[in-house]
Specification:
The protein is mainly alpha-helical. It has 11 helices and 5 strands, in the order H-H-H-H-H-H-H-H-E-E-E-E-E-H-H-H. It has 3 domains: about 60 residues; about 70 residues, Arc Repressor Mutant, subunit A, CATH 1.10.10; about 90 residues, no CATH class. Strands 1-4-5 form a 3-stranded antiparallel sheet, with helices on one face. The radius of gyration is 34 Å and the shape is elongated. One of its GO terms (biological process) is DNA integration.
Length: about 260
């Protein structure tokens, strides 16, 4: 696995570049390892070791393992959160701008300043789906990353939805006790028309939902829309009218 240069200090990266420049004549086939050893006063064994490490890990491989955790600037967790927040809050902001803001913020908080490469590394490690979410609207993000298959209907009665809600009224149940009833509605996804509804006590379950679906499928002698003065694109008005009719019929008082 190739190491990331951003994990190392500026001094360590500078040392790695110096070693690369030492090996450069060999990589360009201008000198042999023996010739480089003689001109740079570096043992051939050391040069072969550097060459092997460079081939495996790139420039990061030229950094001594014994120095990897020495003189490293430890990044405070609050600093990491600040960098990530700046990235998500400012769409299109450059890493250089985030680095400048982070340095100023760290100075105010008396914290160690991260290098540009450390800020770059923090942003690079943010999961791609989170980066995409900050750059897309919710619909585009859902289309690309959500694992749930969604459908859009093209005509009435192609897709129905069932929903439940506890009503904000109190009535007497069969035990003569005050209780809040539940409203179950079957809604046409295309027209938003209410195909069926049921009001009763007890938490909704599959059996109660099936009863509402049966009532929604049956042909109505009087259309719900005509009965309650249904208006297209006005679901809340329709539900309110249904409840008002029920309250008037049974002389109920809304809470």
């Amino acid at each position: 696995m190739i190491k990331n240069l951003a994990d190392f200090t500026e001094e360590e990266r500078k040392k790695a570049m110096e070693r690369y420049y030492t090996l450069e004549p060999y990589f360009k086939k201008l000198k042999s390892v023996k010739a480089v050893s003689e001109s740079e006063k570096v043992p051939s064994r050391t040069l072969y070791n550097w060459i092997s490490r460079y081939k495996n890990d790139g420039l990061a491989g030229l950094i001594d393992k014994t120095r990897k955790d020495r003189n490293r600037i430890k990044i405070d967790e609050d600093t990491i959160n600040f960098v990530q927040n700046e990235y998500f809050s400012n769409r299109g902001i450059s890493i250089a701008s985030i680095h400048r803001k982070t340095k100023q913020w760290c100075n105010n908080k008396k914290l160690s300043e991260p290098s540009y490469y450390q800020v770059y590394n923090i942003i690079k490690r943010i999961p791609e789906n989170l980066k995409a979410y900050s750059n897309m609207n919710s619909k585009k993000y859902a289309e690309k990353y959500d694992g749930i298959y969604t459908r859009e209907c093209e005509r009435p009665n192609e897709i129905w939805q069932a929903d439940h809600t506890m009503l904000d009224i109190e009535v007497l149940n069969e035990k003569n006790e005050i209780e809040r009833p539940w409203l179950t509605i079957v809604l046409d996804d295309y027209s938003r028309a209410i195909a069926g509804f049921r009001i009763e006590f007890g938490t909704p379950d599959t059996e109660r939902t099936a009863l509402v679906l049966r009532q929604a499928i049956w042909k109505k002698e009087i259309q719900i829309g005509q009965f309650v003065g249904y208006q297209k694109n006005s679901i809340l008005t329709t539900v309110k009218t249904i409840l008002q009719n029920i309250c008037n019929k049974y002389q109920l008082i809304s809470k």
